[in-house]
Design goal:
Distance between the termini: 13 Å
Low-confidence stretches: none
Structural class: alpha/beta
Oligomer: single chain
Number of strands: 8
Helix content: 40-55%
Strand order of the largest sheet: 1-2-3-4-5-6-7-8
Radius of gyration: 17 Å
CATH superfamily: Aldolase class I
Number of helices: 11
Largest sheet: 8 strands, parallel, barrel
Bound molecules: 2-phosphoglycolic acid
CATH architecture: Alpha-Beta Barrel
Length: 233
């Protein structure tokens, strides 16, 4: 299983250094990936965890003020990078076409994209969730060879679950995973959205889940430890 930790825009340098000490004592048979802010990437120093980023420029290096390129991430030994998180789609108006370009830039640098897809509450109420995810996957994965496509980790994150404490029913998750795996049968698919040390008991019954993308819980090493223990036992 993959457990990816999305710190989002949290942790100052000092807080990150302390946090890292706590994460360093986590032991797990699963793969842990930490995605800190860009500024904390240079302070990353863990042996039991792999390094990820939360975003990348869709351009190569050049005159793009404020951007960070895939080459730069590569030079910091970043192995994974989240793309298409709903917060970026929403606040930065990121489009599926831009996300496709970001995936290209990452693959050129041998960085594995973690592609987030998910529907809003309104879209689910209108029963559009399946078509939304199909559209997001189709455009984001356009023009990739099947070998490139298979490298990508997909994270299904219903937007109405992110940071809300509400998770879909197991049947809703299973149905969506079935749809996603029909489209990309050879890809790892994670669940993200309010996964925590309590609901993991329920979530782990879903055999289709290949791992988790954790936001809020990533900032609480003690609870994360309980999450991992419950997942593994
Ligand atoms: P959450 O965030 O676990 O706090 O809901 C997940 C995510 O946004 O990746």
């Amino acid at each position: 299983m993959i457990i990816a930790l999305n710190n989002k825009c949290n942790l100052t340098k000092q807080e990150f250094l302390k946090y890292q000490e706590e994460l360093g004592s986590l032991s797990t048979q699963n793969k842990l990936i930490l995605c800190p802010t860009f500024l904390n990437i240079g302070h990353f120093d863990l042996k039991n965890v792999e390094l990820g980023a939360q975003n990348v420029s869709f351009n190569d290096q050049g005159a793009y003020t404020g951007e960070v390129s895939a080459q730069q991430l590569q030079s910091e030994q970043v192995k994974y990078c989240i793309v298409g998180h709903s917060e970026r789609r929403n606040y930065q108006q990121e489009t599926d076409e831009e996300i496709n370009q970001k995936i290209m830039r990452l693959l050129e640098q041998d960085i594995i994209p973690i592609l987030c897809v998910g529907e809003t509450k309104e879209e689910r109420e209108k029963q559009l969730e399946k078509s939304i995810i199909e559209k997001e996957l189709t455009i984001a994965l356009a023009n990739l060879t099947s070998e490139q496509k298979e490298k990508i980790i997909i994270a299904y994150e219903p937007i109405w679950s992110i940071g809300t404490g509400i998770i879909p029913t197991n049947d809703q998750i299973k149905e969506m995973f079935k749809n996603i795996k029909n489209m990309v049968p050879n890809n790892k698919v994670l669940y993200g959205g309010s996964a925590n040390e309590e609901n993991i008991v329920l979530l782990k019954e879903i055999k289709e889940i290949d791992g988790y993308l954790l936001g809020g819980l990533s900032l609480k090493p003690e609870k994360l430890k309980v999450f991992i223990e419950k997942l593994e036992n």
